Amino acid sequence: MATLSNTFETAFLHRQSVVEEEIDFMGHVNNLVYLRWASEMAGRHWETVATPDMVSAGLWVVIRHEIDYHRELKLGDEVEMRTWVEPPKGLRFPRHVDIRKAGADKPSAKVLTTWTYIDANTRRPSRMPAETRALFYPE
Q1: CA gap 30, 22 in Å, rounded
Q2: What is the biggest distance separating any 2 CA atoms in the chain, rounded to whole angstroms?
Q3: Contact at 8 Å (CB) between 51 and 129?
Q4: Would you put residue 119 in left (φ > 0), alpha (ψ -120 to 50) or beta?
Q5: What kind and span of H or E run contains 110?
Q6: pTM of the predicted model, to two decimals?
Q7: To bridge 86 with a disulfide, which of 28, 29, 58, 94 should be the other Cys (CB 3.0-4.6 Å)?
Q8: Any residues with CB less than 8 A from the CB of 137 and at least 6 apart, and which?
Q9: In a domain, 126, yes or no
Q10: Residue 2 belongs to some domain of the structure
Q11: Structural domain tally of the chain?
Q12: What is the pLDDT, as a whole number, of residue 29?
């Protein structure tokens, strides 16, 4: 099982380079790309920690995105993204994504996304099964 990711220091980490398709008319990463990256990070993390049965039993749906932009990223920059989760608030599951140039001490963008867990069969919000919950919030 993967390590618990509930702080920046224990966050799930992914690295990639900025490619040409992600650059906007101003010569830096387009704001919508940060949103896509945050969503992709959540998916990568989920697929890393969850079993195939967990993945098929539940879906994650975004309720809210909040993005703070701080520094631009440009073509060819190596980017480090980290994601971690906060304790749930009812059926709401806050997830952070920190996006920064590799080696930077400050983020280029910080994303806070609120997700809800959906039962794959009913397609309705549902309490997360205990074994799935333990991946993120061990007792």
Answers
A1: 6
A2: 48
A3: no
A4: beta
A5: strand 109-119
A6: 0.90
A7: 94
A8: 6, 85, 87, 88
A9: yes
A10: no
A11: 1
A12: 97
Give tens-digit pLDDT for 81-125: 999 999 889 999 999 999 999 999 999 999 999 999 999 999 999
3-state secondary structure of 10: coil
Q: Is residue 1 part of a domain?
A: no
Rounded Cα gap, residues 56 and 9, in angstroms: 29
Tally: H helices and E strands in the chain: 3, 5
Split at pLDDT 50, 70, 90, the class of 139 is: low
Structural domain of residue 23, as residue ranges?
A: 12-136
E strand segments, 10-108: 12-17, 58-69, 78-85, 93-101
Q: Report which of residues 81 and 8 the model is more confident about.
A: 81
Sheet holding 12-17, edge to edge: 12-17, 78-85, 93-101, 109-119, 58-69
Confirm if 60 and 85 have CB atoms less than 8 A apart: no
Asked whether residue 26 is assigned to any structural domain, the reply reads yes
**Cα 29 off chain centre by:** 18
Report the distance separating Cα 88 and Cα 24, nearest Å: 35
Q: Print burial letters for 59-95: b (CB count within 10 Å at least 16), e (below 16).
A: eeeeeeeebeeeeebeeebebbbbbbbbebeeeebbb
